Amino acid sequence: MKRVELVQLGLGNVGRAVAQIVLEERKRWLERWGVEVVYRAVVDTSGALAGEELLPRAIRLKEEGSKLSELGVEPLEDVLRSEPEAGATRVVVDLAVHGDTSDLDLLGVENGAYLVLSNKGPLSGTTQRYERLVGTLGDRLWHEATVGAGMPVISTLKSLIEGGDEVFEIQTSPSGTLGFIMSAVEGGRSFSEAVREAVELRYTEPDPRDDLSGLDVARKAIILARTMGRKIEPEEIPYESLVPKGLEDVPLKEFMERLPEADEEFAERLLAVEEHHMLRYLARIPAQGPVEVGLVDTPVESPFGPINGPVNVFDFRTRRYSDVTLTVSGPGAGPERTASGVVFDLLDITHKVVEEEGG
After folding, report:
1. Are residues 210 and 266 in contact, defined by beta-carbon separation less than 8 angstroms?
2. What are the catalytic residues?
3. Which residues pair with 297 in a beta bridge?
4. How many angstroms separate the CA atoms of 319 and 338, rounded?
5. N-terminal to C-terminal alpha carbon distance within the chain
6. Which CATH class is domain 2-149+337-356?
7. Distance of CA 32 to CAs 22, 146, 342, Å?
């Protein structure tokens, strides 16, 4: 029997969904592949909860908005520096919502651990930090869920490049949240109504301004550009914010109450769209030249015109797919979908462990 132990950074919406899938499915994985998946620790900003005996209680505690420290935690650095159990393969799973946690990730993988990311921060910071992380990890880095939730976007892009194709441009609507909001507004709801519905359906981050700001899309664009081989700094990508002016820094409750103030201006923006066009929040990532992120008048017949609901669309124009582009599309919002992408990566690593150990 082989053993994979997880150190998970983050127990928010996605983190809890990942933990619940692992707890529910690992018996089947053990029976099918002979691999036991266990939790070495789960982590939040208050510290690391070692072992998994208290994990179900920790999940309930985080759902209530409390900290893991209420259950007793160890210093995070001690857990990350610790050696895996004899014969076990360690995987650091970084599901933190905010920030560049690359230093913590590096600390966690210095003993040969794998790294799985849904947190975009470590791959979308400065080139120096990005190259340090990627250079250290090599083929021990999995990050499908940083861009397309559970969709095969990074793997598709890598397959095109490794297969000898040349990627000229990626155009994408990579935010299921913004896809939902824009299609809801086009369907007759006001901007504020669409945002509130997205919040209720858990398509947004706890603070919807994290989605509306456009930063999430910009980070995904950086990751795609770097996967294409481009060297690019975050400040090279300006992005359009949909957060109403004057509401950027007010408390969340006040923001939601005052959101209708933006309805009239947004309705006017929608009316200005050309006939047979749709308003979409897109990122355009060419092989050379500036990366563009913001609202775009998009022809109805384009791959982005039919978007309805929390859908992501990634359109690849390459040497082999030039007259007819290669399009990957599917649902891209909701913690369960991102969690699925993380679990797919975990299973990939599990299969790799089995193969390397002759299973």
Report:
1. no
2. 220
3. 279
4. 30
5. 9
6. alpha beta
7. 14, 28, 20
Q: Is 245 exposed, middle or buried (0-12, 13-18, 19+ CB in 10 A)?
A: exposed
C-alpha 259/C-alpha 340 separation (Å) is 32
CB 210 within 8 A of CB 348: no
Domain chopping of the chain, boundaries: 2-149+337-356, 154-332
SS3 state of residue 145: helix
Whole-number Å distance between alpha carbons of 303 and 100: 33
Q: Which CATH superfamily is domain 154-332 in?
A: Dihydrodipicolinate Reductase; domain 2 (3.30.360.10)
Separation between Cα atoms, residue 119 and residue 156, nearest integer Å = 20
pLDDT digits (tens, 9 = 90+) for 4-25: 999 999 999 899 999 999 999 9
Distance of alpha carbon 326 from alpha carbon 260, whole angstroms: 39
Cα–Cα dist 297/159, whole Å: 31
Look up residue 240 and give its DSSP letter. -
pLDDT in tens, 299-351: 989 999 888 888 899 999 999 999 999 999 998 777 888 999 999 999 999 98
Q: Is 315 exposed, middle or buried (0-12, 13-18, 19+ CB in 10 A)?
A: buried
Spell out the residues 6+ positions from residue 357 whose beta carbon is closer than 8 angstroms to its own. Answer: 2
pTM of the model: 0.94
Categorise residue 93: left if φ over 0, alpha if ψ from -120 to 50, beta otherwise.
beta
Tokens of 336: 């369960």
What is the identity of the amino acid at 111? N
